[in-house]
Design a protein that fits this description.
The chain is α/β, with parallel strands linked by helices. The protein has a single domain, classed as Rossmann fold (3-Layer(aba) Sandwich). Helices cover about 45% and strands about 15% of the residues. The protein has 8 helices and 5 strands. It has a 5-stranded parallel β-sheet with strand order 2-3-1-4-5, with helices on both faces. It starts with 7 loop residues before the first strand and ends with a strand. It comes from Haloferula sargassicola. It holds the Pfam family AAA_33. This is Adenylate kinase.
Length: about 170
């Protein structure tokens, strides 16, 4: 006899908005599996970029996005689908391009087998910049080097789909 699937929460928003903190607290509260895009495929992405002679810390260039963005997200969703029948799942990742697609929640529901609960974490750009500087990670250096250019690629407006709005703290 199979049991009903558990909840799947997606915690979305721009870099340094507070996604990881919110997702971690949510996962602890729910007793959920936490799948963070920064952790799930990080070593494979770095190895692949290095093997290709590219910057292993690049997460914003068109090359990275065309080669890795979809496979990383697909891996997150495959892992979530594998676990959501047994445990609640929390996925943390930017998903900023998807925030403009009104059909995305329905696509996720078909893929995951459950209706996802979508969270959008946001805070002002100057707060995000300060957080990026404070965390001092290599993958953030390109963002900080040309902040205005990076900021022009960020989605600041809320998603077009229903979501729980979270102020990143």
């Amino acid at each position: 006899m199979s049991e009903a699937p558990h909840a799947c929460h997606l915690v979305c928003g721009p870099a340094a908005s507070g996604k990881t903190r919110h997702a971690t607290l949510l996962a602890e509260r729910l007793g959920a599996v936490l799948l963070d895009s920064d952790q799930v495929a990080e070593r494979l992405v770095m190895a692949g970029l290095e093997l290709a002679g590219l910057d292993p810390d690049d997460r914003d260039s068109p090359i990275y996005k065309s080669a890795y963005r979809e496979p990383v997200y697909d891996t997150l969703f495959d892992l979530a689908a594998a676990h959501v029948g047994r445990l609640p799942v929390v996925i943390a990742g930017p998903f900023t391009a998807e925030a403009g697609n009104p059909a995305w929640p329905h696509e996720l529901e078909r893929r995951l087998g459950v209706k996802p609960v979508l969270h959008w974490v946001s805070c002002p750009p100057e707060v995000r910049r300060r957080r990026l500087e404070q965390r001092g990670e290599e993958r953030d250096r390109p963002k900080l080097r040309d902040w205005k250019k990076y900021l022009s690629t960020c989605r600041e407006e809320p998603p077009v789909w229903d979501h729980l709005g979270v102020t990143g703290g």
